[in-house]
Structures are given as structure tokens and as C-alpha cells.
Amino acid sequence: MSKTRYINKNIIECPADRVIDNIPSPFLTRCSPYVTQTFNSKVDMLLNNIADCTMMSKIIVIGDVSVGKTCLVNRFCKKIFDGNYKATIGVDFEVENFLILNVPFSLQIWDTAGQERFKSIAQSYYRGASAVVIVFDLTKPESLHNCHTWLMEASQTFSAKTPYLFVVGTKRDLVKTYAYMNIEECAIRVATKLNAEYWSISSKTGKNVDNLFRRLAALTFQECVKRELEGKRFKEIGNDIVALQPKTTQKRGNCATKCKN
């Protein structure tokens, strides 16, 4: 028997690379704490109970100065690469639209400044992030060692639930094979210690950039749907998920108008 798929009337046209039906694979399976590669069955059931809507999640991109945060965001969002360094002042953000399981989904990508003088401004935007992308430069090992500090500072804004954590090495095109093998092993150890998923990308060539953001979109979308389930709007009954109707309060009549002597 074919499976009934929820149809959302607000569906928007998306390029093929923004349409997602399964959770994309990690860069290296052994370097990810997020093992699932299929959407949770509850997600599929819940979508049939959600009114036509557009869902949204927020990710923040943090890391040292000039490690390539803005180049990474621009490569994905604008399909461009500019090798001339321009410092981010405070924060910039982009919004990318996806169609995930036939549901419109918007991913807010917040690109933060790495300079010390802008940290307090940038940190005010960390709150509410569904994923944190900690960027380091594969040609600068010291930027990898600073990933722990960046995470500790960001974690001060986390709620009870820790967001998805990613450690992303940039400028893969500038590192020769032998040197890359050494830095990658160090990066994997750092990511494992931080309980984060490791990725290696090149913003210049575009290698792995789309795959990274597609995975971020899929994981944060699933988390967004789960939050709906954890709220009071839905309840599990057996193997089904049903929408709860809000209680209507009945006004009490004035006894003087209802009672007669």
C-alpha cells in the first residue's frame, strides 16, 4: 500500500538542491554523533497534523578571524567566492529556503564576527540557535585549537537542549595531502571531544559545501518538527499522533439572571 504524503498548499518552488526527502549523510560516519540518516517516523506522522505553514530554524557560524566563515556562507547562499578578506562587522545573516518532506522550511544562517571587539555584539545573536557551526582554517592549526573556546562561549547561551554541533575545516584546496591527513586527524579528535560532527570543505571549489548545509537543514528541520510534538498541540495515542483542540471556556452566567425567587 502506498504511503499518503502530506501536501502543503504553501509549497514554494525550490531548486533541486534545496529539495530534501532524506537526511543527507555526514562527511565521515565515524566522525558524527548524529547517526540517523532517515527522518524519525514521528516526524512523518506529525506533518499530517500540522496546518499549512512554513517552518524556520536558525544556525550560527562562529570561529576565529579570517578562517573563512563569510566565504563559506557566500559560497552556499550566493554561489560566489571572493578571496579578498573583508571582516564581518558584528553579524550578517542570510535566509535560504528549502522544501523538506514537502514542507517549506527556511534556514537562517547567521555569520558572526571573529574579532574580539565584536564578540559581545555577536554573542547576543547566539540564543535560539538550532545548530552551531564552528569554523577553523585547515592551514592554521591554532584556529582548530580555539574551537573549544568558541564552543564554551557559545554554550553560555544554550537552553536546556544543546544544539547540533559541527566543526568545519575550510580551505581544503590549500592543503597538500600529507599535511591534510595530519590536521584532519587532529580535527577529528577535537570534534569528538566536543561531541560535534566534523566536516572538511573548500569554499573556493565548493567541495562539500552544499552537502554540509543540506545536512544542517535536514537535521534542524527534524528538530523543529519535534518541538511541535513536545508542545501541547499534539499527543501520541498508540501509534498515532493527533492534534489537540484548545479547550473552550464557558462563561458562567450571572446567578441573578438565572435564578428566580
Automatic annotation (TrEMBL):
<protein>
    <recommendedName>
        <fullName>Ras-related protein Rab-36</fullName>
        <ecNumber>3.6.5.2</ecNumber>
    </recommendedName>
</protein>
<dbReference type="InterPro" id="IPR001806">
    <property type="entry name" value="Small_GTPase"/>
</dbReference>
<dbReference type="GO" id="GO:0000139">
    <property type="term" value="C:Golgi membrane"/>
</dbReference>
<comment type="similarity">
    <text>Belongs to the small GTPase superfamily. Rab family.</text>
</comment>
<keyword id="KW-0460">Magnesium</keyword>
<comment type="function">
    <text>The small GTPases Rab are key regulators of intracellular membrane trafficking, from the formation of transport vesicles to their fusion with membranes. Rabs cycle between an inactive GDP-bound form and an active GTP-bound form that is able to recruit to membranes different sets of downstream effectors directly responsible for vesicle formation, movement, tethering and fusion.</text>
</comment>
<dbReference type="GO" id="GO:0046872">
    <property type="term" value="F:metal ion binding"/>
</dbReference>
<dbReference type="InterPro" id="IPR027417">
    <property type="entry name" value="P-loop_NTPase"/>
</dbReference>
<keyword id="KW-0636">Prenylation</keyword>
<keyword id="KW-0653">Protein transport</keyword>
<keyword id="KW-0333">Golgi apparatus</keyword>
<keyword id="KW-0472">Membrane</keyword>
<keyword id="KW-0378">Hydrolase</keyword>
<dbReference type="GO" id="GO:0015031">
    <property type="term" value="P:protein transport"/>
</dbReference>
<dbReference type="InterPro" id="IPR005225">
    <property type="entry name" value="Small_GTP-bd"/>
</dbReference>
<dbReference type="GO" id="GO:0003925">
    <property type="term" value="F:G protein activity"/>
</dbReference>
<keyword id="KW-0342">GTP-binding</keyword>
<dbReference type="Pfam" id="PF00071">
    <property type="entry name" value="Ras"/>
</dbReference>
<dbReference type="InterPro" id="IPR050227">
    <property type="entry name" value="Rab"/>
</dbReference>
<keyword id="KW-0547">Nucleotide-binding</keyword>
<dbReference type="GO" id="GO:0005525">
    <property type="term" value="F:GTP binding"/>
</dbReference>
<keyword id="KW-0813">Transport</keyword>
<keyword id="KW-0479">Metal-binding</keyword>
<keyword id="KW-0449">Lipoprotein</keyword>
